[in-house]
Known about the structure:
single chain; alpha/beta; Aspartate Aminotransferase, domain 2; Aspartate Aminotransferase, domain 1; 2 domains; seven-stranded mixed beta sheet; four-stranded antiparallel beta sheet; 15 helices; 13 strands; oxidoreductase; PyrdxlP-dep_Trfase_small; Aminotrans_V_dom
Amino acid sequence: MNEMTPITKERKQTFTGHQALILEEKLIFEIGSADKSGVDLEPVPEVTPRLGDCMAPSKPDLPGLSEPEAMRHFVRLSQKNHSIDAGLYPLGSCTMKHNPRLNEKMARLPGFSDIHPLQPVSTVQGALALMDELAHWLKTLTNMPAVALSPKAGAHGELCGMMAIRAAIEARGELETRRRVLVPESAHGTNPATAALLGFKVDEIPANADGRVDLAAFKEKLGDDVAAIMLTNPNTCGLFERDIIEIADALHEVGGYFYCDGANFNAIVGRVRPGDLGIDAMHINLHKTFSTPHGGGGPGSGPTVLSDRLAAFAPLPYVVAGEDGFDLIELEAQSADQPFGRMVAFHGQMGMFVRALSYMKSHGSDGLRQVAEDAVLNANYILASLQDVMTASFAGPCMHEALFDDGFLKGTGIDTLDFAKAMIDEGYHPMTMYFPLVVHGAMLIEPTETESRDTLDLFIATLRDLVRSANAGETERFTNAPELAPRRRLDETRAARHPILRWQTAEEAAQAAE
């Protein structure tokens, strides 16, 4: 692998503030004003308002711009964001991979994009058929008999699985006694939060030296008051929990349920069926495993598959096939089972359903298997290529993501945040930082299966050069970074603790200060 020769140039100051095609852009409130509009409107005639004391005391203070100004403003803002369309997005635990444009084309087909959840089912038979087929393949890939499609994201699907477990425990008359949920210390932060939300007591399980659940410690915590375990596999350290079947068997022996966080299903899809591992409930992030876009407000989708022990408690609504076509079971009186209720007002994220099924049908069973294999291959390529200069937190091989800590930066005066900021100057979005919490100064890298070897080689060479620079004492490259981004480093602590959430004019700000 050839090392890159660094190219450095001082930024020239210009009259406009623009740097060639890197265009400076002010806030929309700074470039527009409330006394003008980009649209010619007829004068509003005098009317008698019917809102009474609910009438707004003043006009909305919205900036007026011409149509080209508004369009250019948002285009310029979009160019300041990193995206998977612009380059490698190495966030660990987030699976930021290429979203095929075929998915988008399918999601925009009439009959999927322009339907309404209150339409009669007779007019949306195609959409219901798609939901039924998606449910079939999710159940096939996991070897689970039931799936709830309605959860809107990973944490929502996680809540769904735990609500089904709670309903099953309540049906057994054990809700007062089974109050403890076991959660590994490397779990996603939503896991203990979900358990606590449902009234359970969270009991942490330590990890062993290999970064996996300490089996002996787990067995010591078992008892007839255990409701469930919430375990991620592959776990947040990017490692497969090798004792998962033994964990499931021991848990079931004391009457508990196994919830698996399926955020990392993309590492095992087509290779392992969670149902074969003894899992009772698992959410699946369609927006990760099956490529649909996520982040920045979503939308996400987190269908939850359920085992035989929990299938009867699946929430409403769900699709059924009959002689006259497809129908929706939306009321408990229509169900022969014991649904715990419903998670959302309607049926879930239709656009995500279309994109996910499009991805599945494009790949086929052999293609989905290769997705997992290539994701694991790429992550291990990163791990093997960097472990001589960066500190791998655990011995490989890893699964879909490679985890490093800040041990290699010791004595350099540079920390994980500095290292990440320097990556921005090199054109990369930083990897996930300081997560998982069980590793000091964590750097979690997930290349996904969609990146080529050439792309990974350049990324690896860049990180190696950053390590070289840190060891050579070139601290300003890190502590001053980013220098080439549209904005310099922010005071992130102050921004988090004292956010400015409302635009104020200079006069308002001065009055507030007084």
